[in-house]
Amino acid sequence: MAGTCGGLRGELTLWVTGISNSDGCTGTNLVHLAGDLAGHKNMVAAVMTAYASGKKVGLWSTGCVQIPFWGGGVTYPIVHDLWVTEVSMMHLSNSRRSG
Question: pTM value?
Fold first, then answer.
């Protein structure tokens, strides 16, 4: 995670590297954390904790969304779960998630 940007509806954009993109989103340098996602506040807290402590964030996404703030026309992965980790960035797409 290289940085964050928040929206008025509690949405969060994360700059990321090293993600897989099995859903075919046209952009892979950002991911979207929707403001209405269950556990949203906990995920934001985890992202900020990871950033402040120099740790990495792993995430699972499925689907793509246009983020109007970034000019539209490009779709980005939608985060549904994330975790703080010591290892390099991990990204699990819909087709790779087990259980």
Answer: 0.71
